[in-house]
Write a structure and sequence with these properties.
Elements: H1 2-10, E1 17-21, H2 25-31, E2 37-40, H3 44-47, H4 59-72, E3 77-81, H5 90-104, E4 108-110, H6 118-126, E5 131-136, H7 152-168, E6 172-176, H8 180-189, E7 194-197, E8 205-208, H9 210-213, H10 230-246
Parallel strand pairs: 1-2, 1-8, 2-3, 3-4, 4-5, 5-6, 6-7, 7-8
Helix pairs in contact: 2-4, 4-5, 5-6, 7-8
This protein binds 3-methyl-2-oxobutanoic acid.
The site of 3-methyl-2-oxobutanoic acid has 11 residues, from strand 6.
C-alpha cells in the first residue's frame, strides 16, 4: 500500500492521475485497469439511494459497498470516503477509519474539510492511516454548490487550507469546483498531487463519478462529461428481452434443461 501511495505522489508534475468512483465489484473490475485511484465516494448516497445530500450516508453503507468494490480492485489505490459525522473528533475519526480499513482492506480514507479538521488529519496520519484531503465544495456540509474562489476571502482560505492539509500529511487533495486560476495556484504551491473535479485541467489529476461519466446518473453539472450512454444499452436489452418473452422466443431450447 505504501508503494501505491508513493507512486501516486511521484506523479506530481510528471503524469496525470486518473481517478473514478466505484460502488460495486462489477464497475470496479472494469475501470481498475484504467485508473490510478478508485474512490468509493459517499456520492453513492445521491447516486444510488436518491438522498438529497450525502449527509445521510452511514459508515455501514460505506463499508458494505467498499467490501464489494475491494473484490474488483486489483491494481488501483482504493480510497474510501469517511461519511458525515464519523470524524467529529480525533478519537471518533481514528476508531472509524480503522474500522473502514480493517473491514474493507482499502488503502486510504478521504475526509472533507480544511483548517477545522487539520488536527484530526494529523492524528490519523500519526496512527499510520493514509489520508486524502478534499477542499472546495464540500458536499457533506455545503449549503451552496457554487464554485469556490470567487472572492479574495475564499481564495485566501483555500490557499491556506491546502498548505495546512499538506503539512498535516495528506498524500493528495481533491479540489471540487474550484476556479481555474486558483486550482492552478494551489497545485503549484502544494507538493502533494491535487485531483480536480470541476477544478480545471491544471490539477495533477482528475476524478469523476463513474455513473455520471457513463450516462447512468442524470446530472447536469458543468464539470461532468458524458463519455457513454449506458442507459440506451440497458433500455435496448430490456426491450429485446420483453419482445422475446412475449413472443415466446425466450427461453429457447439452448437456454432450457
Ligand atoms: O463522493 C464522491 O464521489 C467524491 C468525488 C466526487 C470526489 O467525493
Amino acid at each position: 500500500m505504501q508503494k501505491k501511495i508513493s507512486i501516486i505522489k511521484s506523479k506530481k508534475n510528471k503524469s496525470k492521475i486518473v481517478c473514478l468512483t466505484a460502488y460495486s465489484k462489477n464497475t470496479a473490475s472494469i475501470i481498475d485497469k484504467h485508473c490510478d485511484v478508485i474512490l468509493v465516494g459517499d456520492s453513492l448516497g445521491s447516486v444510488l439511494y436518491n438522498f438529497s445530500s450525502t449527509k445521510k450516508v452511514t459508515l455501514d453503507m460505506m463499508i458494505e459497498h467498499s467490501k464489494s468494490v475491494r473484490m474488483g480492485v486489483k491494481k488501483s489505490l482504493m480510497v474510501v470516503d469517511m461519511p458525515h459525522n464519523t470524524y467529529r473528533n480525533s478519537k471518533e475519526a481514528i476508531k472509524n477509519a480503522k474500522k473502514i480499513i480493517l473491514k474493507t482492506k482499502c488503502d486510504a480514507v478521504k475526509l472533507e474539510g480544511g483548517k477545522k479538521i487539520v488536527q484530526i488529519i494529523k492524528n490519523l496520519v500519526k496512527n499510520k492511516i493514509q489520508v486524502m484531503g478534499h477542499l472546495g465544495v464540500l458536499p457533506q456540509s455545503a449549503t451552496s454548490f457554487k464554485f469556490k474562489g470567487k472572492n479574495i476571502v475564499e481564495r485566501k482560505n483555500l490557499l491556506r487550507d491546502s498548505k495546512l492539509l499538506e503539512e498535516a500529511g495528506v498524500f493528495s487533495i481533491v479540489l471540487e469546483c474550484v476556479e481555474s486560476s486558483l486550482a492552478k495556484e494551489i497545485t503549484r504551491i502544494v507538493r502533494v498531487p491535487t485531483i480536480g473535479i470541476g477544478a480545471s485541467v491544471h490539477c495533477d489529476g482528475q476524478v469523476l463519478v463513474t455513473d455520471d461519466l457513463i450516462g447512468l446518473n442524470e446530472i447536469s453539472a458543468r464539470f461532468v462529461k458524458k463519455y457513454s450512454n449506458i442507459k440506451k444499452y440497458i433500455n435496448d436489452a430490456a426491450l429485446k428481452f420483453k419482445q422475446d418473452v412475449t413472443e415466446t422466443k425466450f427461453p429457447s431450447k439452448k437456454h432450457s434443461y
